[in-house]
Amino acid sequence: LPYSIRVLFESSIRNCDGFLVKETDAMNILDWKTKQNNVEVPFCPARVVLQDFTGIPAMVDFAAMREAVRNAGGDPVRVNPACPTDLTVDHSLQIDFSKWPETVLKNQEMEFGRNRERLQFFKWSSKVFKNISIIPPETGMAHQVNLEYLSRVVFEVKDFLYPDSVVGTDSHMTMVNGLGILGWGVGGIETEAVMLGMPVTLTLPEVVGCELTGAASPLATSIDIVLSITKHLRQADVAGKFVEFFGSGVSQLSVADRTTIANMCPEYGAILSFFPVDNVTLKHLKHTGFDKAKLEVMEAYLKAVKLFRNYESSSREPEYSQVVQISLSSIIPYVSGPKRSQDRVAVNNMKSDFQACLNEKSGVKGFQIAVEKQNDIVPVQYEGNEYKLSHGCIVIAAVISCTNNCNPSVMLAAGLLAKKAVEAGLVVKPYIRTSLSPGSGMVTHYLSSSGVLPYLSKLGFEVVGYGCSTCVGNTAPLPEAIRNAIKQGDIIACGVLSGTKNFEGRLCDCVRANYLASPPLVVAYAIAGTVRIDFETEPLGTGFNGKSIYLQDIWPTRKELHTVEEECVISSMFKELKEKMEKGNKRWNLLEAPESTLFPWDLKSTYIRCPSFFDKLAKEPVSPQPIENAHVLLYLGDSVTTDHISPAGSIARSSAAAKYLTNKGLTPREFNSYGARRGNDAVMTRGTFANIKLLNKFIGKPAPKTIHFPSGQTLDVFEAAELYQKGGIPVIILAGKKYGLGSSRDWAAKGPFLLGVKAVLAESYEKVHKSQLIGIGIAPLQFLPGENPSTLGLTGREQFSVLFPPELSPGMTLDVKASTGKVFSVIALFENDMEITLYKYGGSLNFVARRF
């Protein structure tokens, strides 16, 4: 068996209770070779990790569940997580200050001040709920802390050993697979069910063996390797599959390299990318503070249950569903963009590729700029000096926490490049929003101890705090003069960041081209000030004495990197982190919070509100109710992401959420972000489908608008949904292929549910999102192969009725009747009896909560 399947097999045996996990489940996994992709199997992870943005609604739901259980005559004290759960409070960071000295301390102070209310709620949660650990603020982001501090590799509970495994509410949870820990991100709804003792149900996956051979070029960083592997695996169609790495090239990768590669797997659609534990893993764990006795037990156990990988052994490889071969020696430096992570561009082709994007029609790459305007220059005054903006100018450059901080080599490369650049006399233009937001203090530690942090600071890359920032839209606003110049000149301004997501408009609504790059390339492009540069033939800028400085003049060699890494990235960093974790911080320690069994809801609060999900807590399942004469709330196309659906980033002043907060007496300065307000269903419902790039076919252009057909009005999506609900009219959504792509987000399901959406009719779904829809009580319906609204002659202006039979079965066909008289068939995408049961109870949370 592939090593990843062995972990599933061990879990099924250990947790077999004849109800949630049956003997047949274990036997199906054992017979993986013939049963793969044909059966559903349960998986009970060893633990759960929550981050703040999705942790807040999860804990609010737990508080609401206690309320509902009390109202139904149960004992609310019984409502606790059954699975060990860790919640990281400061996973996400809003940047207010990006220039020294207004950086880390002030950003942390602002975060603590504006989020005091939700921090008090977290503190209450830590006091009253059993089996949950709250990781205090100012520590680090969820997947980074999970990797550096929470990971056990092997669990030891009362002298019983079993493999560490984890699910969490962050798509980057897959990072831990680089340590040999099976883990992936699931939706908040599924995570809450796991916290309450339910297994994760998944189709027994195909496992793609990815054979790595050769060695990468000295100029190729881990990010280049990641993006190259992303391209290969995306082309190999690994969506919904496990990927497992093997081959001679694997032993040449450090654990930092492996975690960076594993972290990117959601971007190519795999459930996870697994690197079994080997000698490289054990060596890494030794340096991070695992004591010798524990490592010896770990190694002996993993070898005893055949979960230890020995690349020096001549034993035959596991049998994989398919094998993808990748030669590391063929990998050269790339960036990805300008709108999608899968669109890779060789760095030596960047200038010509951007020019081609200007020429191309508007779409996934093109901007359709008239030839006569492609060389337009817009002069702008900033801080007493005149600068010239043109197409390709860089206005945001961010070394962010998403993927790179887990790999010291790429972060140190950025620092060493900055050092050489400053010493050569190069600078970054002051209007460029530069920032450095690592995932944990460990990164700051080694950047500081290696002596490169001051040089990053001199180029504007100040440490602004620890957590997700730029890539979720939390960057500091661009200077007003720069924004105005970009808009007035219709300039295609660029952002360059070392993250994983670059959807158009995500960083800032006036920054239309966004490129993903390695940290040293982010710094290099910031110095150049434009993406329209050929690094091989054009200088980055002019240094001291008027000398032209080229990229090759300041690019650090592998030998330099290795030397600095050996001297600075040592076990003391992990020791310091662990001490910090155990000590906490003064503000958190002094924060007061109630200790009552039930949370004392404040009706005036705009952060924490008791949601309505458990208002109709069902003790028994009910027959699915028919959907009668439903209007279409939105008619969407292909590749609608959870970014389009779920509220994220800043709250636009003209949005429905802004109107709500204004009516509550708040000023725009006090709006905070959607992520910070995920504990308030009123804000989140208004922010659902509020993305400025939402393309509703009823409107014909990107805008968070739709048509309320009974009145004929064009309204915000929330306002139209509110009118439908007041009129007692159900609504559905029409969509194309791959509905629900991107990060798993509970509010991508909860939001539509609270908007009154009863069903989604799409050509295909992203699997995790489809499960979320079922988990909240929305029916995922799929058009028959080859059919879609267009082929069926539907305009979306019809009303639709769906009749559910009393007894549903997995994958059954249902009839949909349009008000025009047309009848067509759709597939009810329930994959197993458990999903049908959850749907009948009105979602997984109601199903689990009923036992209390």
From TrEMBL:
Keyword Transmembrane in record: no
Coiled-coil segments: none
Gene Ontology molecular functions: 4 iron, 4 sulfur cluster binding; iron-responsive element binding; metal ion binding
Domain Aconitase A/isopropylmalate dehydratase small subunit swivel: start-end pairs: 658-784
Keywords: 4Fe-4S, Cytoplasm, Iron, Iron-sulfur, Metal-binding, RNA-binding, Ubl conjugation
GO cellular component terms attached to this protein's record: cytoplasm
Family to which the UniProt record says this protein belongs: Belongs to the aconitase/IPM isomerase family.
GO biological process: negative regulation of translation
Cofactors, names only: [4Fe-4S] cluster
NCBIfam families tied to this protein: aconitase_1, PRK09277.1, PRK12881.1
PANTHER family, A to Z: ACONITASE/IRON-RESPONSIVE ELEMENT FAMILY MEMBER
Official protein name in the record: Iron-responsive element-binding protein 2
Origin: domain of life: Eukaryota
Keyword RNA-binding: yes
Subcellular location: Cytoplasm
Annotated Aconitase/3-isopropylmalate dehydratase large subunit alpha/beta/alpha domain residues: 34-529
Pfam families associated with the record: Aconitase, Aconitase_C
Known function: RNA-binding protein that binds to iron-responsive elements (IRES), which are stem-loop structures found in the 5'-UTR of ferritin, and delta aminolevulinic acid synthase mRNAs, and in the 3'-UTR of transferrin receptor mRNA. Binding to the IRE element in ferritin results in the repression of its mRNA translation. Binding of the protein to the transferrin receptor mRNA inhibits the degradation of this otherwise rapidly degraded mRNA.
